[in-house]
Amino acid sequence: MNIYEQKQEKRRERYLTKAASARKESHRRFQTAHSMAQAIPFGQPILVGHHSEKRDRAYRKRIDQNFQKSFDANEKARYYEDKATSVGMGGISSYDPDAIRKLEEKLARLRRRQEFMKAANKAVRMKDEEKGNRQLEELGCDHEKIQSLRMPDCFGHVGFAPFELSNNNANIRRIEERIRRLERQQEREPVHETTELYEFRMEDNRVQFIFDGKPSKEIRDILRRNAFKWSPSRNAWVRQASGNGIYASRIVKEALVRFQKENHAGTSNERRLM
């Protein structure tokens, strides 16, 4: 596994650990509530007006609270289990250092699929059905697949529907464009700028703002408004170096210049008043 895949695996393990902890808490709370409930005789009502009424009500309330916390912890466990399952299922990330290779492999599969569908449609529409079936068998179609291809759809089409070819072709063009975009990003020269307020880097397909210590709330708000997120591993505010990311970094730089000027002007006014 590359570094990105290792990070994804660690992320999945963290979710599974949280899910297991929540399951354990749910079981513990349920057992506590169940044991407490067994102490009350079956069908025993609250004795209204009796000296035990207040204590009994508080005891039953704690039982309900433990049951509720057990249910909540169970839902929490399901949430983290779903999160763990979804890790790595969102397609090929541009952050993955092997993204181009993986996209090229996916592109090759889509192209093979496109050629297969074209060849299958040509064979299905041949006047000589036996010859067409032989060609379909050479393409790897079994008897069941051949029968399904020869079965007309609701529009009377046999073989693969036109929308299947057009959708697959659209995916081919989309991935080709994404590969070109990632290749352009990799060809960019790294950028490194330093100002009095921050250090700016553009490398490894990321734009980053690095500060000497924790920036003020105003600066953090500027970064968050422009979709920059704090990365503890890089000790920087980071965003992907896409076209939008690069444009957002320019907006942030302009906002930080204005912030510096306003802050400097405010300090100067304070000194004059003193």
Features:
single chain; 274 residues; alpha+beta; 5-stranded antiparallel β-sheet; 66% helix
Overview of the structural elements:
This protein has 274 residues and is α+β, with helices and mostly antiparallel strands. The chain is built from 8 helices and 5 strands; from the N terminus they run ααααααβββαββα. The chain has a 5-stranded antiparallel β-sheet, with helices on one face. α3 (99-124) runs antiparallel to α4 (129-138), α3 (99-124) runs antiparallel to α6 and α7 (217-225) packs antiparallel against α8 (243-273). The relative contact order is 0.07. The model has no long low-confidence stretch (mean pLDDT 89).
Report mean pLDDT, rounded to a whole number: 89
Unreliable spans are none
Q: What percentage of amino acids are in beta strands? A: 5-15%
**Rg from Cα:** 31 Å
Oligomer: single chain
Query: Sheet bearing the most strands, described?
Result: 5 strands, antiparallel
- How many strands in all? 5
Q: How would the global form be characterised? A: flat
Alpha-beta content class? alpha+beta
Distance between the termini: 62 Å
